[in-house]
Amino acid sequence: MQETRVLVTRDKDYGALVFLSVQETHGVILLRMKPTTSDAVHEELKKFLSVHAQLDLHNRFVVIEPGRHRIRVSMRRPS
């Protein structure tokens, strides 16, 4: 069974992996923030999800910064 999970990370190297990879992803969310509490991270994720609730994150790389969200589509190479 293939799982369809979105990866949430603080590791910036995942951006390169998404764009250079020939494999599809179900989405990567990069948290570019240094919150003082986990509540701050949860609040920013809630903001993003409330605005983009219907967005299909398939092959998307999302960068979440305080008050700013960027969404990029991975241009996967054809098989």
How would you portray this structure in words?
It is a single chain. The chain has 79 residues and is α/β, with parallel strands linked by helices. The chain has one domain (7-73). It has 2 helices and 4 strands. It has a 4-stranded mixed sheet, with helices on both faces. The chain is globular and about 35 Å long.
Provide keyphrases for this structure:
4-stranded mixed sheet, globular
Quick synopsis:
The protein has helices at residues 13-20, 38-51, and strands at residues 7-9, 28-31, 60-65, 68-73. By secondary structure, it is α/β, with parallel strands linked by helices. It has one domain (7-73).
Please render the helix and strand layout as text.
Elements: E1 7-9, H1 13-20, E2 28-31, H2 38-51, E3 60-65, E4 68-73
Parallel strand pairs: 1-2, 2-3
Antiparallel strand pairs: 3-4
